[in-house]
Write a structure and sequence with these properties.
Structural class: alpha+beta
Helix content: 40-55%
Strand order of the largest sheet: 1-3-2
Radius of gyration: 11 Å
Number of strands: 3
Number of domains: 1
Number of helices: 3
Oligomer: single chain
Distance between the termini: 30 Å
Length: 68
């Protein structure tokens, strides 16, 4: 199990809190990820998942770029 946090997305992409939540929501719906838990209401939103971590990071860069 791995965890991706909104703060990690912010540190890597400068995404604000709304974009962090949107990115996590989109990632949770991807077919290459098994989302175990998604908490968008936490102080630091996060997703617990199983899946391809390298692909996940590539994907969240693409998602945050498209939200600008």
């Amino acid at each position: 199990m791995a965890i991706i946090k909104g703060s990690t997305i912010e540190n890597l992409t400068m995404a604000d809190i709304d974009r962090q939540k949107t990115t996590l929501k989109i990632l949770s719906e991807r077919n290459y990820i098994k989302c175990l838990k998604l908490d968008l209401e936490a102080t630091d939103p996060f997703m617990e998942y199983e899946g391809d971590e390298d692909r996940l990071h590539d994907d969240f860069y693409a998602i945050t770029d498209s939200l600008v």
